[in-house]
């Protein structure tokens, strides 16, 4: 059926495209996920600070610790990216500086997060090079 | 035109620039809720650095015992401990104030009295949790 209404006429009154809330929702969801993860992390850091290299390797070898570590890094770096993005958007108004800082923020969070997660997986999955642990 | 000389009058100023005596602003003053808002962002930026330190920890662990010992020595030094203590304060503050924001997102606690009260709770929690965790760390030999 051919519609004789203009695209604007069809769109009027329908509200937003329903995608605008995605950023807002993902900020909240990552916050909620980080509540238990951060409490677990603080406890883990205390134990890791008291232990040596062997203890840390053993700790990361535990499947639960490895999984929670990867989840914490992934969600925390995503949350860090979203937070720093708002800071840059609020304070930097020159288009070029703003774009450069937003890209830098994305790349720093992406690279650091990927390095951290790959490192955890390497230690968690690599059993041969540990010398008895 | 009158001949009697008049004393020059103070030009009118915006109410926000008026002083209420001793140079204190009449309308504008610091509220505890301003501090919680500013500190949420400041601690978030500090925790961004904390996240990068955590990534360095993971990379050092994967790099082997020598690199890991270097990392532990750096974080175990006095400046390292000061940074870790600051990050502990930041993470508990950001955590508690983040929960406060999540409660606000449900539409609860937005009136001035509740917002002031929850601000005090957030500060108290951050201080108490930091001291408790460092006490626990000292007892378990982590510090």
How would you describe what is shown here?
- The complex is a heterodimer of chains A (about 130) and B (about 140).
- Chain A is about 75% helix and about 0% strand.
- Chain A has helices at about 5-10, 20-50, 55-60, 65-90, 95-125.
- Chain B is mainly alpha-helical.
- Chain B contains four helices and no strands.
- In chain B, helix 1 runs antiparallel to helix 2 (about 65-75), helix 1 (about 30-65) crosses helix 3 (about 80-105) and helix 3 packs antiparallel against helix 4.
Can you give me a brief rundown of this structure?
The complex is a heterodimer of chains A (133) and B (143). Chain A has 133 residues and is mostly helical.
Q: What is the beta-strand fraction of chain B? A: under 5%
Task: Count up the helices of chain B.
Answer: 4
Give the name of the CATH superfamily of chain B.
Fumarate reductase/succinate dehydrogenase, transmembrane subunit
For the record, give the distance between the C-alpha atoms at the N and C termini of chain A, rounded to a whole number: 71 Å
Q: Count interface residues per chain for the largest interface.
A: A-B, 37 and 35 residues
How does the overall form of chain B come out from the CA principal axes? elongated
- The helix count of chain A comes to 5
Rounded mean pLDDT of chain A is: 91
Mean pLDDT of chain B: 91
Tell me the total number of β-strands of chain A. 0
Second rung of CATH, namely the architecture of chain B:
Up-down Bundle
Class per helix and strand makeup of chain A: mainly alpha
Low-confidence stretches of chain B: none
Shape of chain A: elongated
Share in helix of chain B: 55-70%
The oligomeric state of the chains shown is heterodimer
């Amino acid at each position: 059926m051919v519609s004789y209404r203009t695209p604007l006429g069809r769109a009027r009154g329908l509200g937003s495209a329903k995608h605008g809330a995605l950023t807002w929702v993902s900020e909240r969801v990552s916050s909620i996920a980080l509540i238990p993860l951060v409490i677990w992390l603080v406890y883990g850091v205390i134990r890791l600070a008291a232990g040596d290299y062997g203890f840390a390797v053993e700790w990361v070898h535990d499947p639960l610790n490895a999984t929670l570590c990867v989840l914490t890094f992934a969600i925390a770096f995503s949350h860090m990216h979203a937070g720093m993005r708002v800071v840059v958007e609020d304070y930097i108004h020159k288009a070029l500086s703003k774009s450069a800082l937003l890209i830098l923020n994305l790349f720093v969070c992406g690279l650091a997060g990927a390095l951290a997660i790959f490192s955890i997986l390497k230690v968690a999955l690599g059993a041969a090079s540990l010398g008895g642990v | 035109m009158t001949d009697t000389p008049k004393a020059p009058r103070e030009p009118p100023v915006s109410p926000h620039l008026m002083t209420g005596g001793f140079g204190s602003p009449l309308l504008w003053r610091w509220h505890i809720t301003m501090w919680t808002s500013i500190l949420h962002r400041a601690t978030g930026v500090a925790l961004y650095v904390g996240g990068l330190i955590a990534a360095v920890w993971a990379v050092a662990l994967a790099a082997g015992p020598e690199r890991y010992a270097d990392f532990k020595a750096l974080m175990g030094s006095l400046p390292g401990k000061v940074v870790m203590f600051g990050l502990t304060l930041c993470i508990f503050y950001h955590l508690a104030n983040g929960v406060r924001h999540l409660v606000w997102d449900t539409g609860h606690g937005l009136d001035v009295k509740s917002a002031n009260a929850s601000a005090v709770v957030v500060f108290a929690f951050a201080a108490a949790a930091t001291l408790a965790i460092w006490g626990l760390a000292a007892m378990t030999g982590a510090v």
